[in-house]
Amino acid sequence: MFTNGYFDLLHVGHIALLNRSKALGDKLIVGLNSDASIRRNAGEKRPIVPEQQRAHILAAIEAVDYIVLYDEDTPVELLRALKPDVLAKGADYTLDRVVGREAVEAIWRQGRAGGPDAGILNRPDRRFDPEKPRGGPDWDETVLIRLPSKPDVTKVPHP
After folding, report:
1. Does residue 116 contact residue 13 with C-beta atoms inside 8 Å?
2. CB 158: neighbour CB atoms within 10 A?
3. N or C end of the chain, less CB within 10 A?
4. What angle do CA 134, 32, 65 make, to 5 degrees?
């Protein structure tokens, strides 16, 4: 199992995704965007939490077996090198938005769109109001999408 992301403001949706991902496989590898990667993707005000702290937080989660910090804008090269069978993503990702889908056998999607951090960074006070209802299915809803076939992928050497 493989999942990736910024994990900048860790929330219950992240924890649910990590725990369910681990439950579906033998080992869970988390690809973690570096600070530079996040800045290129999300702007100069991100990340809020530095990469080493994000890695330590993820390492404290029992479901996480390995963490790979990557500096590229997407995890495509990492996926090609690791060749995981399943890529786990949150419900806010549609199949066409899943980067690296061509390098895995299946994509597993969990959770609900609009989780606790949805829009939080765009609010001036940066506070999450747990009393405000969120749309979407329950946290436990899962979707496993089997892709037609896993392509032959050559191993990418790491410097």
Report:
1. yes
2. 9
3. C
4. 95
Spatial distance between the Cα atoms of 37 and 35, rounded to a whole number of angstroms: 5
What's the predicted TM-score (pTM) here? Answer: 0.73
Residue carrying structure tokens 């410097």: 159
As its CATH architecture, domain 2-146 has 3-Layer(aba) Sandwich (3.40)
pLDDT, tens digit, 9 for 90 and up, residues 4-60: 999 999 988 899 899 989 998 899 999 999 999 999 999 999 999 999 999 999 999
Strand partners for 9: none
Confirm if 126 and 86 have CB atoms less than 8 A apart: no
Q: How far is the C-alpha of 23 from the C-alpha of 26, rounded, in Å? A: 8
Provide the token pair at 47.
């990340």
The closest alpha carbon to 31, from 95, 91, 98, belongs to 98
What confidence score (pLDDT) does residue 68 get?
94
Q: What's the mean per-residue pLDDT of the chain?
A: 76
What pLDDT does 22 receive?
92
